[in-house]
Amino acid sequence: MNDLTGIGIGRGIAHGPVARMAAPPEPPQDVPSQLSPEEESQRVAEAVQAVAEELAARGEQAGGQAQDVLEAQAMMAQDPALADAVAERTQAGKTGEWAVFEAFDEFRQTMAALGGYLGERAADLADVAQRVIARLRGLPAPGVPEPGHPFILVAEDLAPADTALLDLEKVLALVTIEGGPTSHTAILAREKAITAVVGVAAAEELTGGEDVIVDAAAGTVTVAPTQEQIDDAEQRIDQRAAVQAAPLSPGALTDGTEVPLLANLGSPKGAAEAVELGAEGVGLFRTEFLFLSSDEAPTVEEQTESYTELLQAFPGKKVVVRALDAGADKPLSFLTNTEEENPALGLRGLRALLTDEQVLDDQLTALANAQEATEADLWVMAPMVSTVEEAQRFSELAHAKGLKTAGVMVEVPSSALLAENILGEADFASIGTNDLTQYTMAADRMLGSVSHLQDPWHPAVLRLIREVGAAGQSTGKPVGVCGEAAADPLLAVVLVGLGVNTLSMAPAALSDVRTELTLHSAEKARAVAQAALGASSAAEARKAALAASQS
Ligand code: PEP
Ligand code: MG
Description:
Blueprint: E1 3-5, E2 7-9, E3 13-20, H1 37-62, H2 64-77, H3 80-91, H4 96-114, H5 116-136, E4 151-155, H6 160-164, E5 171-176, H7 184-191, E6 196-198, E7 211-215, E8 220-223, H8 227-245, E9 261-265, H9 271-276, E10 281-286, H10 300-312, E11 318-322, H11 350-355, H12 357-373, E12 377-382, H13 388-400, E13 405-410, H14 413-417, H15 419-425, E14 429-431, H16 433-441, H17 459-475, E15 479-481, H18 489-497, E16 502-505, H19 510-517, H20 522-533, H21 538-550
Parallel strand pairs: 3-4, 4-5, 5-6, 9-10, 9-16, 10-11, 11-12, 12-13, 13-14, 14-15, 15-16
Antiparallel strand pairs: 1-8, 2-6, 3-7, 7-8
Helix pairs in contact: 1-2, 1-3, 1-5, 2-5, 3-4, 4-5, 10-12, 13-15, 15-17, 18-19, 18-20, 20-21
The site of magnesium ion has 5 residues, from helix 16.
GO molecular function: kinase activity; metal ion binding; phosphoenolpyruvate-protein phosphotransferase activity
GO biological process, one term: phosphoenolpyruvate-dependent sugar phosphotransferase system
Protein name: Phosphoenolpyruvate-protein phosphotransferase
């Protein structure tokens, strides 16, 4: 057996031959231009314009989050500072190709050095540069191979423009050598339910035509599998297809215990698809995603419009909207202090909102307006709450606006440990396992080198979740989970066993979680949770839960 390992995205499994992404075009040479600086500038301007238009058109065709990503990439191409850096070089007698190559690379390096969200966008900028250079040379844009049969796509990393428009009839799975759990490849693969394993360093060795099995749940790529492994994979592929074709039902355990399954959304545009996939409401609407590229705080009017559009898609259903979570991996220039050395430990989330209550006031006003205009059951919550006073302040502000259900995210160990006191002030709690894991394990969620510590299966994280579940039960207040942990089917069972009432996830994950829940009773879920809690590592917890779930 020859397994390459990486980070699996989703639960899919696929079997087929490898096709490798074409190598990027040769970098240009620094030779003097035969044209005048004005002619070179003109060529570059036309090429940039054409590439930006092509990216925007691809975005329109793809829709959803892909559209936002591609539009952001189109804007990057047209950044005036970048245009100045290119012009400086053409003025100095360089060719357009060289000027673009050098200037874009300088910006890319600056972004990569910043790390975090911007660091992961550096690959997007490299892709824009390659597209502009290809256009200047009159070559087609670099892209996905077309071997004429279904294949497993292996690439260094994928540009959003390629991921967004993958032909899912042909691409059975994605394997990338680079990329972490929050790279665009991962986000878009999750959204489009493409089987993917990212960050597989050893995939460098894979060659076109090689037979592989990609197992996202296990995070593995099996090279040259045996017939037995192929038969097992094919059987699992058929089982998944059968489950996905079954009629949708509300989330529930075998004994009928209801576990509503909700969607995580970043834009009202994803609402229709979430409903189609069986979302019973929204458990986390990330409002900051609407304003990541804004320099100024959004107006009440513009927010009212977005929230109304979202709420209209869920009449009579619960929709949990989170107040702006600015800072660290999601900087908002109008709220975030970029000078901080440790932004994840700085003025982020509710802390940032409470330093300038006007932004929060406007957001709550817009939410109250949207509530007035629609039939949805609107709940609001605060991100990154770490004290009881913060919970109390947020509830007070939200209730004063007529928003009747105001809760908090539990993402910091202090909130989990004081969950009962926090729930004394808030109407509900929603556990953000991504940040809770980051802060419990002291491991930056954006950093590949500590990704082995960012595992919500770690018993230390599970014990904190147990505190919150128990506090929900003693206070009679609802407790949900809206971090990535809810999208892992077996971990979802553990969460329910720890006292969690609702699970919210990327809509593509709903089907696998729904199926797993139907296999266990509440009593069994508690036993599975107990088994995981008793472990001393994440791997052991996974193993113990699996064994308990099958006993
Ligand atoms: C979390 O931290 O788990 C969460 C859901 O919030 P975000 O991923 O947006 O920080
Ligand atoms: Mg969070």
